[in-house]
Here is the input.
Amino acid sequence: MIEIFGLEPKTRWDYLGRFYREATEFYRAGSSVLGEDEIAALIARFKEKPAPSIRKAVRLREWAFTPDLEDEGLARAHYSFDCDASQWQTVMAPHSFNHVPPDPVKLDSDTYVGKYRTWYRTRVQIEALRQDEVAYLDFQSVNLLCDVWVNEEAVMTGHLGPHPFRIGVTDQVGKGPADEALVAVRVTYIATNQPWFFSNGLQVAYANQGPGGGTDKEDWRGVGWSGIAGEATLLILNETHVEDAFFFTRDIVAGQADLVGRLTVRNTSRERFTGRVRIEVSRWLPEEGAILKAVEGDVTVLPTNEVVLDVPFTLAEPDLWSPESPNLYLARVILEAEDGRALDDYVDTFGVRTIKMVGPHFHLNGRKVVPRGTHDLTHYFGDSMICPSDHSIARDLFLHKKLGATCSRWPSDTRMHYERIADYCDQFGFMLSWCGFFEMWRVHPEMELYAQRDARAVVRSLRNHPSIVFWEMGDEPLMGGDNFRRMRWYEQIYGLVSGEDRSRPIIPAGWYCDDDLVEQIMKEEAGELDVEERRKRVLRDNPIFTRELAAWDYHYCPAAGPLRQPLHEHIDRVAKALGGVKPTVLTEFGLDALPDFDKVREAYGLFPWASTGIMSIDRAAIDESYFGRRIGQEDWRETQACQALFHGTIIDRIRESPEAFAAFYLVTMFDVWSFYWGLVDILGNPKLSYFVAQALYAPVCVSALHGNVVARDGDCVEVKASNFGPRQEDASLRVRIKDGAGVAVREEEFGPLTIEGDGGVTTLGTLELSGLAPDLYSIESSVKRCGEELARRLEMFYFEPQP
Here is the structure.
């Protein structure tokens, strides 16, 4: 087998040029796949969750905002009643501000930092608290560090705040003017070329400061987004209240769903509490309905304590949540005193669905599924990196749905806790491997300490979202260094997450099966033991990989440097090492594909083609390895063809190894400045690979060449179909071979055919290649059933006579 990268440079370049021309026509690759009217319609369909009716939840939406780039806010007492904020900007939370201080300081030989601060103030009308009431400030996300005042009193200082946190403010809310509370927040941001070291995501600044950095327009555009990046709420609650409610499905059997409402009831008083909880469940999406189920449970909580109470219930003939049918229910939890008085209520939505690991596969609602999508870097040009707009979320979601994707690592490589993404995916049917808890590469020195607080908070705040089917807690932490700390991190994070949620699989960190599992199994010093025995020994000695809820994750990122091994050989090596013992996700594969610069010149200005701010690479070496020559702006067509072939070779191998790989995600949907791995450019214009990937992500995918680009006289070609959907009967296959002039030289039909489903691979027909003249040929394959086309594919090969 010879892949595209095994051809001689000139031959390869000719192949890429022709593939771009023919594939553009074959896949009907247009200039867009999504209209603004479609995005607007999806946003208009989005439903906001209802508010509680007993507890007082005051959303802090409107704030006065000002940058404090000279760090004068404390001296001027911006937190005080006397501060004149009349000239401040009025903003609505969530809100963010982008700034990179122009003169960073050098922290060490590789790290540059520049700090800046901003201030937010809001006044809240509230009634005086009763004796039996308590007050909290809830923040979903404040990036990066924050200090908080209530009525001029500091209630939080220096808090690392990207993830949810709550502040008790009972003693402070009554100290201001009558019926009013003043809340002030100072946000500190650290702009840096190593944001992960400061527990932030891929907000890279100063990428050009160190040795070898290019100019700003040639290399990287620095960013530094900060702000109140999530909802902020003032809660006035009874001294005994519902602190949390988690609804999950234990099983779905014979038309009945067995569920649990796991309630945390907190008693802040000095007296024992005895009462009842009631859960009322009704349909919410697509249509709202009356109460379907009401269940009750007794609860007793000791003074200044809390208790976790499981309330089981069943739903007959439930409307299940799935990407095809994203049905949602509404749950209202009511806490009553012993005398029947309603003290508190808690409202949230949930879905009835199960996600389980069965052998080497994932099962959604008892049916095998193959999650597939992108490693989505959540980067939207001109929009916030910490609280993107509904327009950006809806556009990204729609692009994935039209691609045929079902699941993505989203948000990923951005330390973003933005629940709105999960809300949209709940309502419009898209699965998530939630990667918003982000640790990467050179991690924060106190990563483990913060995880004790923040990992739990992330899971608790998001676990009612049925779209989140996997927890993925970090991406490549401590990659290539500190083996002890890295392995302990996997164990720690698994324990923290599984302690809060055992209803879905857990990936302790992206990449955790690369060096620490596959390479340990395949290393040469393993001696005479075969792979099976080596695997057993490694798993015995590294129990994190055998944990009940732990799924496996392998990062295959060949284009970070020159190609070392044919793509199919590396994937076969991973499959051999892991052996289908557990469901394995293969991700992180991608390749640069330049945009058509006539479409994006307004964004870029000059042509950036140097090393990127998020991954240090040698462009010259990569160009020669993948494209066979140095790349210029005019070569965008050939690079797009190469990216499409790269994706096709890898995904074919994954799909034709159904017992080895359970899910896959390529990198990424949108380009990130000069990181051109996106299926669409930074403005959302689709590249060729987007249209080719539609064929690769479809339930039925057909391939005749499987990544091979050279055939010889007498070779036999097996046309195979991989089918993630149901079994297909009475299908037909039509194959057409065209020569370099576009003339059909052979055409064959096969049928009737049965195409196995549930990830099965079926050989549809065999072609003997003989009697052809040396040339570059195309193969067009089309699979139909009852007149409907199930799959189509364009592949190309050089035909050579036998030596």
